[in-house]
Fold this protein.
Amino acid sequence: MVKNSRKIAISSKKVMLGDNVETFYEKVITKFGNSAKVDAPKMYVGRRAYVVVLKD
């Protein structure tokens, strides 16, 4: 089994994802019961995703 190497580099101004990224979009995290959620378009159901939380 060959594992894919993934690289994530974060600096003060840039975020670099070393993976095959299809899209990148911004959403607001909303309350959901005792937890929280981030909505995504239906076309991405079942897909793997990155969630990057930024400092305010």
About this structure: The two ends are 40 Å apart (CA to CA). The chain has a mean pLDDT of 84. The first strand starts at residue 7 and ends at 10.
